[in-house]
Amino acid sequence: MAARSGDLRVDGATWNAISDHLADEHDEQVAALLVRGRPKDDPVALVVERWRPVSDAYVRDRIHGLTWDGRFNLRLAEEAEPAGLGVVFVHRHAGRGTPRLSRIDRTHGRALMQFLRRRCPEATHGILVLGDGGIAGWIDAPNGRRRWAEVRSAGPPPLVLPPREVEPDVDLSDRQLLAFGTTGMDAVAASRIGLVGLSGGGSHVAQQLIHAGVGTLVAIDAQLVEYSNLRRLVGARRRDVNKTLKVHVARRLARDVRPGVRVIAVPEEFPSARSLEALRSVDLLIGCVDGWDVRDDLNAFALQHRIPYIDIGAVITPPTGRVGVRISGQISIVLPGGPCLRCMGILTDQRVEDARQVRRGYLVGEPEPQVVSVNGLLASEAVTAALMLIGGADSNAARRRYLYPPGILREVYASAARDCPACGESGFRSAKTRA
Amino acid sequence: MSDDPLSTEIAALAVAWPGAERLAVAKRTLVVLPGIRMTGDWAPDTLDGLVIADGWPQNRPQLLIDAAVTRSGQEPANFSRQYLADRAWYSYSFNAAWDPARPQLVPAVRAWLRRFDGRP
C-alpha cells in the first residue's frame, strides 16, 4: 500500500512572493506558510492561506543552520489556532536534483512539529525543503506523518514540483510541438484536467483535450446519451442512445485516438462526494454546465482549492418577428485569487436561488436552445485558454463575451471585488470546521 | 454558557446531536450535525446534517444532509445538490411554517426529519 501523501497548493502571486523571499543568495531564509487542509483526505491538499517570513528580527543564528527566536513560533501559533490553520515551514536548498534533509533540518523540524502539535492539535503542519528538481520534508497530520507528493501553483508561471514524469510521446513532425515546444508539450502531457458536463459544449472540450494529449481527464457527468443529444454531442453514435454514459463516450474516444490519455469517468453529478474527491487533484477545471447553481458550486470549489476554472455558456434566442436568431455566449477564466464568476456579474444570488428552486420542484425549468457550432466555438476558446494556462501564457483575459450577429468575441473588463461573497475577504474559502 | 440566543440554540443542537460543530465561515451560520438517524427505512439510515441558520430568527433555517437518500431504491422526487464547506450536501423540498417568535432550532430540525416519515 502506498504511503499516504499530501500536496501544497498556492496561488501564483503568493508563490512568487515566497520564492523571492527564499531566493536570497547570501543568507538562508525561511517562510512560515499558514495552510488549510482536511487531514482525513488522501492525498491531503494543503492550501496556503497566507505566509509570514522569518524576519531578521527573530533570527538567532545563521552559521550553524538558521535558527530563530521562539516568540516567532508563539505568534504563529496564536495566528493559526483560532483560524483552524496549520503551519508549514519552508526553506530552499541550493543545487540540482532532489534536496536532502540535513541533520539540523530533522532535529529542528521535529521540535517545531511537537510545539505546533501541542498548540494546534487538529491542524496539519509540515516541514518542506525545496530544490531545483524536487522537494523533501514531511507532513505532520493529526492522524500521522505523510510524505510530500507535489507543490503546485497555477501561476503564472505554472509550477509543479517535482516535475511529473511523462511518457515520451514526441513526433518531430507534430505541428502542436511547433507551437508549444518540448517543455510545453510535456506540461500538457503531465496535466490533469477536470471537466464537468460532457454534453453539448463538454463533448467538444473532451475531444480537443484528448487530441491535444493531456495526461489525465477527470470527466464528471451522470447522464446517458439521449437521442436528442446526437445533434450536438460529438463522439456519440446512434447505438449509444439510452445505453452509453456520456463520460464513457469520452473514454472511448481517448482509447481510439490517444490511448495514453487517462480518462477517469465519474458518472455522477457535481457536487457528489465522489466527484469532489476526483476533482481535488486536478490542475485545471472546465465547466460546461447549464445550471447557475452548479456554476456557483464550481466557482466556490475552484477558489477553495486554488484551481483555475474556465466556464463557458451560451444563450440562444430564437427569432421573433423581424429579428433573427441572436446568440450571446461567454468564456470566463477564474484564477486563484479572483476575479470570480460573482465578481464578473455572471453569478447572482437570484440566478443561483432560482436554479435551486427548479431542482427542488418549486419552479418550472424549460430546456434552452443549443446549436452544435456555438458549443464548438466556445469549447475551442476554453481549450485554447486551458492549453495557454498549462503552457505558461503570462496573461489571460478574465472574461470574454461572444455575440452573434456580427460574430465577435471581445474582452469584458473584470476585477476582483473585495466584498465578493465567494473570493473576497469574507469569502467561503476561509471555511474550516471548528468546535 | 453564552447569553447570545443563537449560541444558546446551537448549544441545544449539540445536546440533541452530540458532536455538533459550528463552522467558522464569515457572515454565515452553519452547524454540522453528525450521526443523524433517519426513520422510515431510508438508506443510508445514518448521515450528517448541515443546519443553515443565516438570518435567524427571521429566516427559516434549512437542513441539508450529506447523502442522497433512497427508500426501496427510489429517490425523493425533488432535491438539489450543493457544495458547502468543501462537502457535498443534498437539499430536499420541505414546506413548513416558521414562526420567528418561536425560533428553536432543535424542533425545527426534528420537524424536517419527520418530512421523511411518510413518503418517498
Q: What is the count of β-strands of chain A? A: 18
What is the tally of helical segments of chain B? 2
Coarse structural class of chain B: alpha+beta
What's the shape of chain A? globular
Number of beta-strand segments of chain B: 6
Helical percentage of chain A: 25-40%
Q: Using only CA atoms, what is the Rg of chain A?
A: 23 Å
Query: Can you give the mean pLDDT of chain B?
Result: 87
Q: Tell me which protein chains meet in the greatest interface and how many residues each side has.
A: A-B, 32 and 27 residues
Give the overall form of chain B: globular
Q: What is the spatial order of strands in the main beta sheet of chain B?
A: 1-2-3-4
Please give the alpha-carbon distance between the first and last residues of chain B.
40 Å
**What low-confidence regions of chain A span 5 or more consecutive residues with pLDDT below 50?**
428-435
Task: Provide key terms for this protein.
heterodimer; A: 435 residues; alpha/beta; 8-stranded mixed beta sheet; 7-stranded mixed β-barrel; 10 helices; 18 strands; disordered C terminus; B: 120 residues; alpha+beta; 4-stranded antiparallel beta sheet; two-stranded antiparallel sheet; 2 helices
Task: Describe it.
The complex is a heterodimer of chains A (435) and B (120). Chain A is of the alpha/beta class and 435 residues long. Helix content of chain A is 31%, strand content 25%. Chain A contains ten helices and 18 strands. In chain A, the strands form three sheets. Chain A has an eight-stranded mixed sheet with strand order 13-12-11-14-15-16-17-18, with helices on both faces. A seven-stranded mixed barrel of chain A has the order 1-3-2-6-7-8-9. In chain A, a hairpin with a 2-residue loop joins strand 8 and strand 9 (144-153). The radius of gyration of chain A is 23 Å and the shape is globular. The two termini of chain A are 33 Å apart. Mean pLDDT of chain A is 89; it is low at 428-435. By secondary structure, chain B is an alpha+beta fold. Helices cover 22% and strands 28% of the residues of chain B. Chain B has two helices and six strands; from the N terminus they run αββββββα. The model of chain B has no long low-confidence stretch (mean pLDDT 87). The radius of gyration of chain B is 14 Å and the shape is globular. The relative contact order of chain B is 0.20. Chain B has helices spanning 5-16, 105-118; strands at residues 21-22, 30-37, 46-52, 62-65, 79-84, 87-92. The chains are: A alpha/beta (435), B alpha+beta (120). The A-B interface holds A 38, 83-84, 269-273, 275-276, 293, 297-298, 300-301, 304, 356, 359-362, 421, 425-428, 430-435 and B 21-28, 32, 66-68, 77-88, 91-93.
